[in-house]
Every structure is written in structure tokens, then in C-alpha cells.
Amino acid sequence: MSGILAGKRILVTGVLMESSIAFHTARLCQEQGAEVVLTGYGRMSLVERIARRLPKPAPLIELDVQDKGHLESLADRIRESVDGDGRLDGVVHSIAFAPSDALGGNFLSTGWDSVATAVEVSAYSLKALAMACLPLMKEEGGAIVGLDFDASTAWPAYDWMGVAKAALESTSRYVARDLGPHGIRCNLVAAGPIKTMAAKSIPGFETFRAVWETRAAIGWDLSDPEPAARAVVALLSDWFPRTTGEIVHVDGGVHAMGA
């Protein structure tokens, strides 16, 4: 099969809804010739149903990044679910969560337990996932790509998730540093806002709409996750062989515009 990911096997996390960037990443990976393995958490029957909408069947593995046992067994479970040697060529990190009291204007009153959860699930998990997959990547190298939301400014209502995203950006740079000797690249795609299930959980999400309507230099469609997914696929491919520790913005140019 032809395509920029022909012959590669990619692990995609976070496919929960058809509107998600992760779903469209998995779809494009398959269309570009890759074999895809999915992970899900919690509502596995829903993930299974959404996975059936992909062009081709994809194995589905349960993964709770806060569960040490899930992480320690991930490589073995991937080997069991695929044909061949179980090698991975790429990993997509699309995992983020913050308790409700860590969002929506509660920044100064949020307790540490909620902050710790946001940082562990949304940032530390990048390192945890990378290490869980390393046994399947360290011989041949590959690419890790995470989904980000620009953390260089303080956004309305985003609060501790914004801090967690800043931690994600820093974590990505250190993963890039320490896994570089294994030939593994680590980059992020900082996407503009997309109307997904995750977005609906952010109080005040509609405030982002006005920002992007007025500041996106080339426009932005909140209902279209494909531009961000395309960037993820490109970074997974061999077309970026010496790019690592980078953040690629797919946001219509908002990150570069003044008020």
C-alpha cells in the first residue's frame, strides 16, 4: 500500500468520539498505509463502536495511564494483538483530563489533588506512555506525537489545564532529549479549539470561538479536526527525520497574532 506511512504501525490513544482529532488521525494513518492499534479508557464499548467507523478494523487495548499495571503490560498486550514482532513506529498521545474544579475560573481555589490529577493525566502520561512503548520502538526508532493547546498565554477558563499543557510542552522536550539516542522523535501539535467531547467539559469554551473568529489569519473551523490530524500524520512520517522537541501550531495563525 502506498502513502507516507506505508508499512508502519501506529498506536493511537484517545479515540473517544468521531469528532476527535485522535479519530481523524487514526483514519488518516490507515489511509496513508499504516496499521493502527487503538487504546481506550473507561467507556470501552463506545470506543469499540467509534473504532468500527474507521476504514479498516483496528485492535483496541484498554489503557488507563494512571494504572501502573496497564502501563507495565502495554507492550506485551500490543504484541498479543498484532501480527509479527509487535514493533511500533509511532505513538500518538491524545490524553488529557482535569477535574471540574480545576477549570472554569477556579484557578486560585483549586486544591492540589485536582491539580495533581490534571498534571499526571495530561502531562506526565506522555513520559509514561513513551516508556511503556519504548521496548517496541528502541530497535528501529520512530516518532511520538502529542496533542497540545498553546500554553504560552493564560486563557479564560482553562486554568490548571493550561498549566498542565505547559508541563506537557516541557515534558515533550525532555522526552525528545532522552529518547533521541534511540532514534525516537517527540513533537507536539498545538491545535486550535475543536468542538469535541473534551471541549464541552471546559466551562467558557465558547469564549475561544470569538478569539479564533477575529484573530485566525487564515481562518479556523471549530468543526474540522482534519488539519490538526494531518499535521500529526506528517510528524509520524519520515518527512520530518530530524525534527524533535518541536511544537507545530495548527491554529489558523492565532498564536502569532497580537490582540
Mean pLDDT: 94
Number of domains: 1
User: What's the alpha carbon Rg, rounded to whole Å?
Assistant: 17 Å
CATH superfamily: NAD(P)-binding Rossmann-like Domain
Helix content: 25-40%
Q: Which structural category do the helix and sheet elements fall into? A: alpha/beta
Strand order of the largest sheet: 3-2-1-4-5-6-7
- Number of helical elements: 8
The CATH class designation is: Alpha Beta
Structural account:
The protein has 259 residues and is an alpha/beta fold. It has one domain (9-256): Rossmann fold (3-Layer(aba) Sandwich). Helices cover 39% and strands 14% of the residues. The chain has helices spanning 21-31, 44-51, 68-81, 112-133, 159-179, 197-200, 206-215, 226-236, and strands at residues 9-12, 35-40, 60-62, 90-93, 142-148, 184-191, 247-250. A seven-stranded parallel sheet has the order 3-2-1-4-5-6-7, with helices on both faces. It is globular, with a radius of gyration of 17 Å. The termini are far apart. The mean pLDDT is 94.
